[in-house]
Design goal:
12% strand; alpha/beta; Helicase, Ruva Protein, domain 3; Arc Repressor Mutant, subunit A; 9 strands; 5-stranded parallel β-sheet; two-stranded parallel sheet; 3 domains; 327 residues; Rossmann fold
């Protein structure tokens, strides 16, 4: 059972999109684990890699996908009382006493389960024990730590991992699926454009190249946030490199000679072209506004307004007033 297009969007928000070997293996593994009906699944991976999205994918592949997916966190002080409510709901469902079986969780996801205390872990075993023969609610346990690292935390941790058996899923970091960055970035850009009602044609090729060269220690979550912020900053049809803060200062306008610019389209917004033209004129004029304005064919007052507008006043020489008087 493989999620359809709508299921993929809801279950994984396309965090699992891509053509890399690493992500194809992950999709195959998650689909298999979900469809075989494992009662306990352990997922581990770096922060921001998409562990919760994998849990959503597994739930969508299961026979319980019509029931809700419930996400809890071990750091939540109300965790034990929430688990008690889940036990009551599942027990009632198992005895045929549930007034609304469709509201029973089909999958319970516990984040940071390596930090769960023994009373909470004991309640997880109660959830498994009160279901009878039919699997009503599976447990998906999420952590940044691997199964080997967690196994020694407590006897109950080890026992839950024993129940998981081979249903342990490792989520690769984005650095291991670099060829997926462009596809993920395009999806996140389209998603942000819809959310914030921005009209864009896409991300420029130069900006995509910059993204591919970035390290992304925060993994897919960092990429998503970075693209979303860039979409919000963008002012033209294309989200250009200028909108991606922290990706270097390279511009889609490349200098081939000291007095020549090559403009690449698509990818160069009018704002970028104007800024680079101003930078080049000031460079050729040695920072003198009067000379730079002559090169650009505008008045020095107009040039000063543009420098103020784009925050380029630091490129002017300090003795501008004396230079202007002499000129």
């Amino acid at each position: 059972m493989v999620p359809g297009r709508s299921g993929l969007a809801e279950a994984a928000e396309s965090w699992l999109a891509g053509q890399s070997v690493a992500i194809e293996r992950l999709r195959s593994r998650a689909t298999h684990v979900g469809s075989e009906g494992s009662a306990v699944v352990a997922i581990h991976g770096d922060a921001g890699a998409g562990k919760l999205r994998v849990a959503q994918w597994i739930h969508r592949c299961s026979s319980r996908s019509g029931n809700p997916l419930l996400v809890l966190d071990s750091d939540d002080p109300t965790l034990k009382s929430q688990l008690d409510r889940v036990i009551r709901v599942i027990a009632a469902r198992a005895r045929g006493l549930s007034s609304n079986p469709a509201r029973t969780p089909g999958t319970l996801v516990l984040r940071n389960w390596d930090r769960a205390e023994e009373p909470a872990l004991a309640r997880l075993f109660e959830i498994l024990g009160c279901q009878g023969v039919e699997l009503v609610c599976a447990l998906v346990l999420i952590s940044k730590r691997s199964a080997d690292q967690i196994r020694g935390s407590s006897t109950l941790h080890a026992q839950l991992l024993a129940r998981a058996g081979g249903s342990v899923v490792s989520v690769p970091a984005l650095r291991h699926r670099g060829i997926d960055i462009q596809e993920l970035a395009r999806h996140f850009a389209n998603e942000a454009a819809r959310r914030y009602d921005k009209s864009i044609r896409g991300i420029s090729p130069q900006a995509l190249s910059k993204l591919e060269a970035h390290d992304f220690p925060g993994n897919v979550r960092e990429l998503q946030v970075m693209v979303e912020q860039a979409v919000l900053r963008s002012t033209g049809d294309w989200v250009t490199g200028e909108s991606f803060w922290g990706l270097g200062e390279d511009s889609p306008l490349a200098a081939t000679e000291e007095s020549e610019l090559v403009i690449r389209l698509p990818g160069s917004s009018l704002r970028e072209i104007e800024i680079q033209a101003l930078r080049l004129a000031l460079k050729l004029a040695g920072g003198r506004v009067v000379r730079a304005s002559e090169l650009l064919g505008i008045t020095r007052h107009a040039l000063r307004r543009k420098l103020e507008k784009f925050g380029l006043n630091d490129l002017r020489v300090t003795n501008e007033s004396s230079t202007s008087t002499t000129a």
